[in-house]
Structures are given as C-alpha cells and as structure tokens.
Amino acid sequence: MNFDFCLMTMTQPMLLLFTSILLALGNCAPKQAPHTATQPVQVLETPKPEPIAAQKAKPLQTGAEQVELYLPQLKGKRVGLIVNQTSVVGQTHLVDTLLSRGVDVVTIFAPEHGFRGEADAGAHVKDAKDIRTGLPIVSLYGKNKKPSAEQLKNLDVLVFDIQDVGVRFYTYISTMHYVMEAAAENKKPILVLDRPNPNGHYVDGPVLEKAHQSFVGMHPIPIVHGLTVGELAEMINGEKWLEGQRQADLTVVPVANYTHNTAYILPVKPSPNLPNAQAITLYPSLCLFEGTNVSVGRGTPTPFQVIGSPYYTDKGYSFTPESTPGATNPPYKGQVCYGMNLTAPAKAQPFTLAYLLKMYKQSTEQDKFFNSFFEKLAGTAQLREQIKAGKSEAEIRASWEPALSDYKNLRKQYLLYPEKN
C-alpha cells in the first residue's frame, strides 16, 4: 500500500489498540505491504470501539463524514471520485468538501441516474461537465460501465462514495464492482467510504445463479444481501469475484457508531423513484414486478409504494401513471391501474413474495404476466415456474436452501459491524 497513515484490519484488536495510541501521539504506522491472496483488503479504523451501550449516545458518522481519517491519503494525489447526489458530508457534497480541503479532484465518475441523480431508471447517461466546478463527468451508465485505462491514466487514487439500499439488483453495487475491477487492472488504489445499509438488518431471497448474471445481478448473493457497500467490497475482493480473480488495492473507511440494526433514514433519496423510507423498505419485494406486466407506481407521487395493472381483478384501488421527473415515460402512462396501496407504514415489511403471488393469482393476463427481465431480477428461472405452478411462499422459500444458509455463513466472514445494538 502506498498510503502514509495508519491502516489495520478488524480482526487484529492488539494492532488496533497500538495504532490508536500512535494516532493520539500524532505518529504514523509503517506502510503496509502489498496485498496478497490472504490479505485482500485493509480497513481504516477509528480508535478502538467502545462497548455498544456507550456508542448509543454518539452520533452515527458515515465514512465520508470522517474526513480527517482519509484526507492524508488524498493529499498530493490526483483523485477520481465515483459519486452521485447521495455523496454528502453534512449539507455539502463530497466533491466540494474535498476541493475546499485542497484535494486535487480530477474526474467525477457517475453511476445510473447520473451525477445529480435525476435520470430515469435505465436511461443512458452522457459524459458532461459539472457546471459548478468545471470538472469532467464520465458516465458509467452509458457507452461503458467500467472506467477505461485511458480514463484512469491521469489518476492516482479512486474514491467510491455512493449510498446503497442493500438489494442485489440496485446497480450502484455493480458500478462499484466494475470500478474495483478497473482499479485492479490498472494498479490504482481504491477507497470505499462506507455508508449504512437501510435494509442491512436481515438477509433473504434466492441466491443468484451464474446463468442469470447481469448488470442487475453480478454476484452470487441473495436479493437482500445484508451488507454495507464496504462489506460487499471486501467480499468481492476476498472471494476473487473480479475478472481474472484479481484483487483490488482496497481500503474501506467504515461507518462509526453503527450496527446492522441501527435505524437509519437516508438524508438524500438514493434514486428518483425511492423517495422515502417506505419505498426503500418495500423495494426488495416490489422490484420483482419490473419483470412483469405490473406497474410499481412509477409516474405517481408514491413510486414503489403502490402496485397495479389494468389486468387486476380487484378494482378497490386504482392509480394512473403520468410523466414525472425520473419517470418520463412510465408503464401504463395515462391508463388506469388497479392493485394495492402500500403507503401505510404498517404495510412495509421485510422481503416477501405475498404481493407477487397475489397479483399473479388475480391477473386476467397470466399468460403475459412475466417478461424476460424477470429472471435477471430473481436470479433464477425457478421462481417463475414455481409461481405459475401455484406454489406457496413457504414451499418456494424452502427451495432457496442450502444456498441461502451457505451465503449467510459466508457473510459472517466479511462483517465490519455488530449484528445487534
């Protein structure tokens, strides 16, 4: 590692304590040796964590908010940032924060929805220039999803800071994968500034099968993976899931005063159609409808909080999608859709197939219910056939084993945070 400050792993408590003392004295630990197959990642730590009870009184701090912890790694370096509208430090964007500290930010890389998070889902994002700073913005959701060697040649270090929602088909983690891969190929170090996972308190759903791998599902993980982006980056690196089994020169800046059961309301909506905590909670269950003829409420004030279609037999609730920012041409635009209103807080629950099974059972167009995108979202061809065969949720869940239990055991090896408050 070519970094001039203290790095240590979560599994080395004595080294953690020793390094904390050195930091308090203003000293610095020796440089780390290059990564090996048995040491694929480093975790930048704050001083030794206090007991959980003592942490409760302290405010949560994202990796990005702990600027003094990672700033020495960026000083004097040409920096590329993988960021969007969620990359905030308090009320300030990370780009502006680093520029104000004298960091040489050279390039901004933007994921799906763009740098400002305003583009429609699936809409290609073009390269541009940031009006405020004049910095070039390179789209990673346009002509290329992985930074090229040419785009990285004038950079010394990459920084990934994007808020995830803990679901396999949310594409920000796919962008992180490709950035890690490019970093490994071009021998560039990468920092992941970790953020809480609002769905990080549980693990559920079928594990992705390799035959259905795509940009909305790149890793053999369940729909709800229960990891922060920092933990997932460690897993990608440690399991050698990058092309050619490469491993990135990876540093994770962890969230302070956080557990996987810490309640966290996102300060900025992560994408145009996830406007609030209700939508984020329902998203793991409802996004499967994107592979069906059912609307998830795009083009309404409550996306991912209502579902419906013209083919649903129960007419008790309806909505009509219209063009809105972030959903300029939603499914069933201008058509009345019948279905379910899930906006009440009590309707939000962890991942369930109940909505999917009910909508299929009461559809008058069952032969057209699924489309070819469904398998990419589900990660398996089995789920479609099970629903068509009339299987119950309990029967379907049983088929996810032993892959789901195996994943849960694997997950434990990469956790950076306690499971309980």
Please provide a brief summary of the model.
The protein has helices at residues 13-24, 52-55, 67-74, 94-100, 149-152, 172-185, 229-238, 277-286, 354-361, 374-378, 382-388, 393-398, 403-412, and strands at residues 41-43, 78-83, 88-89, 92-93, 104-110, 128-129, 136-139, 157-161, 190-193, 204-207, 222-224, 250-253, 306-309, 318-319, 337-341. It is globular.
CATH superfamily of the largest domain: Uncharacterised protein PF07075, DUF1343
Total domains: 2
- Helix proportion of residues, in percent? 10-25%
Range of strand content: 5-15%
Outline the structure in words.
The protein has 421 residues and is an alpha/beta fold. It has two domains: 253 residues, Uncharacterised protein PF07075, DUF1343 (Rossmann fold); 104 residues, no CATH class. The chain is built from 13 helices and 15 strands. An eight-stranded mixed sheet has the order 1-12-9-8-2-5-7-6, with helices on both faces. A three-stranded antiparallel sheet has the order 13-15-14, with no helix packed on it. Strand 6 and strand 7 form a beta hairpin. Helix 6 packs across helix 7. It is globular. 45% of the residues are buried. The N terminus is likely disordered.
Protein topology:
Blueprint: H1 13-24, E1 41-43, H2 52-55, H3 67-74, E2 78-83, E3 88-89, E4 92-93, H4 94-100, E5 104-110, E6 128-129, E7 136-139, H5 149-152, E8 157-161, H6 172-185, E9 190-193, E10 204-207, E11 222-224, H7 229-238, E12 250-253, H8 277-286, E13 306-309, E14 318-319, E15 337-341, H9 354-361, H10 374-378, H11 382-388, H12 393-398, H13 403-412
Parallel strand pairs: 1-12, 2-5, 2-8, 5-7, 8-9, 9-12
Antiparallel strand pairs: 3-4, 6-7, 10-11, 13-15, 14-15
Helix pairs in contact: 6-7
